[in-house]
Each structure stands twice: as C-alpha cells, then as structure tokens.
Design a protein that fits this description.
By secondary structure, the protein is an alpha+beta fold. The chain has four helices and five strands; from the N terminus they run αβαββββαα. Helices cover 30% and strands 33% of the residues. Helix 1 runs antiparallel to helix 2 and helix 1 runs parallel beside helix 4.
Length: 159
C-alpha cells in the first residue's frame, strides 16, 4: 500500500479497547486504563504508526501515548469507546529535508454493537500541527472505520 492508502491505525486504539467491552457490560462508563487487560492493550497501542501515513515530512511516529480511554455501555449490547492520545511525529533519518517534530492530540470515538460484532460509527479528531497534515489525507475516516471493523471482526471470532 502507498503511505496515503494505509488504514488509520488510531482507530486501532478504540478497537483494542473493545476487548474490554466484550466482558459483561458495565453500568455507565469505566476507564479502560484501570482494567487488568490494559497492559496488553497499551502494548498494542504503542505500535500504532499514524505518522507513517504521511508520504513526506514528519512521517515517523516517535511517541504515541494514551492519556485516557473510556468504555461506556449504552444498553442492549451497545457500547462506545473514546480514547485520547498525544502524538509526536518526526522526520525519518533518511529524509532529504529534516523538520522539527510536530505534535497533536488524537481523539478516537467508536460506537459499536457488541452483539452484532459491528462498528456503527467512528470519528477521529486530530489537532495541532500534525492534525492539519493528517486531515489533508483523503479518506482517513473511511480507512479507519474499515480497518477497525476488520479488527473487531477478528476479536469477535476469538470470544
């Protein structure tokens, strides 16, 4: 795949957190970061390479730190997941032009029907300098949703 065609891996955060929503539903919302599953999810999140979607410029993820992750039961096997992360992108060592690192905050929100194993809605918000660069990529939201659904389908097969 070309860099601009890669699925948006930020939604992977939300899908990774889905694993925690497959346990009996919580009343209201709960921080996923206090869950016993969090270390495994955090390891998966640390591999997200959102900056690598950029064809040029600061196209190497140097830091991707989740600062909050909440799973909310919305009733009848429906859930929503909202994760916030701080992202820093750097220029790769082999780039012709070196640039200063750029930072931004990423908020991924996913609504899903756990019973049907289906994502019903996704939304990515990326702010800061990196947000203007990543927002310019075509179809980021669609790619993210499709990638997240494939990950959700895989998780549902495991339960």
């Amino acid at each position: 795949m070309n860099p601009g065609e890669k699925p948006c891996k930020v939604v992977g955060i939300a899908v990774g957190l889905l694993a925690m929503s497959l346990v009996p539903a919580w009343a209201g919302c709960k921080s996923a970061m206090s869950s016993p599953e969090w270390p495994e999810v955090a390891r998966a999140i640390s591999t997200a390479q959102l900056c690598e979607q950029l064809p040029v410029g600061p196209n190497r993820t140097s830091s991707f730190k989740v600062v909050s992750a909440d799973v909310c039961s919305t009733g009848d096997s429906l859930a929503s997941i909202r994760a916030t992360a701080l992202l820093t992108c750097e220029t790769g060592d082999n780039s012709l032009f070196q640039m200063a690192p750029v930072e931004g905050k990423v908020v991924a929100t996913v609504a899903l029907d756990v019973g049907a194993c289906r994502i019903t809605d996704t939304h990515l918000e990326i702010d800061g300098e990196i947000g203007s660069l990543l927002s310019a990529l075509p179809d980021t939201q669609d790619f993210g949703r499709n990638w997240a659904q494939s990950q959700l389908s895989h998780l549902c097969q495991l339960r």
